[in-house]
Amino acid sequence: MAARSLRLLTTLLAVATAACRAEAESEAEWDMTAPDLLFAEGTAAYARGDWAGVVLSMERALRSRAALRALRLRCRTRCAADLPWELDPDSPPSLAQASGAAALHDLRFFGGLLRRAACLRRCLGPSATHSLSEELELEFSKRSPYNYLQVAYFKINKLEKAVAAAHTFFVGNPEHMEMRQNLDYYQTMSGVKEADFKDLEAKPHMHEFRLGVRLYSEEQLQEAVPHLETALREYFAADEECRALCEGPYDYDGYNYLEYNADLFQAITDHYVQVLSCKQNCVTELASHPGREKPFEDFLPSHYDYLQFAYYNIGNYTQAIECAKTYLLFFPNDEVMSQNLAYYTAMLGEEQARSIGPRESAQEYHQRSLLEKELLFFAYDVFGIPFVDPDSWTPEEVIPKRLQEKQKSERETAARISQEIGNLMKEIETLVEEKTKESLDVNRLTQEGGPLLYDGIRLTMTSKVLNGSQRVVMDGVISEDECRELQRLTNAAATLGDGYRGQTSPHTPSEKFYGVTVFKALKLGQEGKVPLQSAHLYYNVTEKVRRVMASYFHLDSPLYFSYSHLVCRTAIEEAQAERKDGSHPVHVDNCILNAEALVCIKEPPAYTFRDYSAILYLNADFDGGNLFFTELDAKTVTAEVQPQCGRAVGFSSGTENPHGVKAVTRGQRCAIALWFTLDARHSERDRVQADDLVKMLFSPEETDLPHEQPQEAQEGPPKPVQGSVSSSESGHKDEL
């Protein structure tokens, strides 16, 4: 007894020593940049048009997440193999035995637990280092990095990688119409091969299974067998990986962890049952394929079903019997399979067939799964911890009798609810389609017509005149002299292709694009390369437009700059013959427009945080370049605005305002393009730097804008200026 106690004490001391040493010696040596940070860097690079930066950060984010997953798998698998749970060779102490013997039995159990924990700590390092946010996991599960990557690779002319990224994203998001259009476009491009359309996130077991089933369906059974066998091997490997990843921290699942007060054994039970439930749900995860609404039913057993018939057709009765018996492990009462087995047995001979049993890997899987289900159903019955069995083959005797009726009722209820939800979704889709066609939007109800704040600004057109909602045209925002000064600043400070990674013609090959941001203009002014007062005027004018927009649209929340750009579009004279494109195609500023489906998808890479947009024109001495609004079909023009010095167009950035720019066919069209957000988190970083630079360069008196003059809101639309707006045939012609 003393010797056994000494061994136990030695073990516990060794565990404590290992745990202390783990702080300094992490085998993982995890020094990679966190995927969260890399993903954030990638989105920031996308926002500023740094395509090489997008590729670098997003690819590193994908590799970092994969490396973290591999680290967890390696550590948990190795520690489980090196330190398996060891049952006491002696029988557990009975009630009649001394309490000391029972305590020693418990200590042995927890000693093994501590050894496993020490192994994991030494291998993984501090767990906090490897935590990932739920938001990031969601982005990766949606395959969002590939959405950014396909654009970035396309911009840097790496078509093979762009196609692969686009296809990978589309496989996981088959309803994404914009990506479908991109893929259709890629297929028409020279140099793009069929092999380029590959899923970079494909699961090996699912890829092999689908390929095997396709060959099976085409009656190429000999060719199908190796793929189905490979699918099985990959499935069991993926299952072990999935199960290992379940052994993570406890998910309080709605509980406030500060109020969680379970005792030792209840806490262990809660966590262990959660892990077991996760492991059981690996069945669902491995049977799921992106683009399918539901997982494959009876996914693992179906492998043996396909194989038994394939082996029969190629004359391999030994394997046919083995696969048939394996299938019957899961569904012992299947009449068709029993008949098949009887036939194969007769063909091979009963004596030889009797020696063939189900596959060992499947037997181990089946036995382990049943034991886990028994524990989970026990926890459900005794502790009330819910468990939804993912398998249809579970024998009834595994389920406690009083739960059988309850589960039957729950399944019927779930099926009914699922059907009702399906019917409701169809009704909603119909309703949304009708509402879209009627061009109804809640934003139409938003109040407009607030004060314009400054003397000289005139309200020229309201939403009613512009045949839409949340639209306004104002004149007299700046003077002729200010227009000329800002236009000179553009020609002096603007860079060809600014904001588009130097692409000189980002929207059309028939025009050249020049631009400069507020901060860049101020920096050039500070360096003496452009007139500093002109850069300061640029800064003040953008602030003036922001204030007027916030006032006119009665915004209760602060309006922040999202992006500011002083731009000029110059017609390329020799490229105007037979020109059919526009200066900027129809789009929506905060979502991806799918004109054919009459929807606008508000998700990255769209600038989903943009809420309001404005354009301040600086000149009119050019041909073309009119701004026009359309319906969601991108064809039905509802209003058109002709640029002129001091004219500002403001509108909300959502689906109610698709817009485009007609071709500039002669001369140079200059304007200040502004986007605003109501979300302070997306406030323009350059603007903050510009604010600081202005405070440093100018006195408070110089930074103040002219005093705002309160005005009464104008009732009704003023008379439109001739030639400044045209209505579509379906619009309100009588108002013009």
UniProtKB/TrEMBL annotation:
Record GO terms (molecular function): iron ion binding; L-ascorbic acid binding; procollagen-proline 3-dioxygenase activity
Annotated signal peptide: 1-24
Family as reported in the entry's similarity comment: Belongs to the leprecan family.
Taxon lineage: Eukaryota, Metazoa, Chordata, Craniata, Vertebrata
Organism: Delphinapterus leucas
EC code(s) of this entry: 1.14.11.7
Cofactors, names only: Fe cation; L-ascorbate
Database matches in PROSITE patterns: FE2OG_OXY, PROKAR_LIPOPROTEIN
Keyword DNA-binding: no
Biological processes annotated in GO: bone development; collagen fibril organization; collagen metabolic process; negative regulation of cell growth; negative regulation of post-translational protein modification; protein folding; protein stabilization; regulation of ossification
Gene Ontology cellular-component annotations: endoplasmic reticulum
InterPro entries: Leprecan_dom, Oxoglu/Fe-dep_dioxygenase_dom, P3H, Pro_4_hyd_alph, Pro_4_hyd_alph_FE2OG_OXY, TPR-like_helical_dom_sf
UniProt domain Fe2OG dioxygenase: residue ranges: 554-678
Protein name: procollagen-proline 3-dioxygenase
PANTHER family per record: LEPRECAN 1, PROLYL 3-HYDROXYLASE 1
Reactions that this protein is recorded to catalyse: L-prolyl-[collagen] + 2-oxoglutarate + O2 = trans-3-hydroxy-L-prolyl-[collagen] + succinate + CO2
Coiled coil: 414-448
Annotated spans, Disordered: 695-736
UniProt keyword list: Coiled coil, Dioxygenase, Endoplasmic reticulum, Glycoprotein, Iron, Metal-binding, Oxidoreductase, Repeat, Signal, TPR repeat, Vitamin C
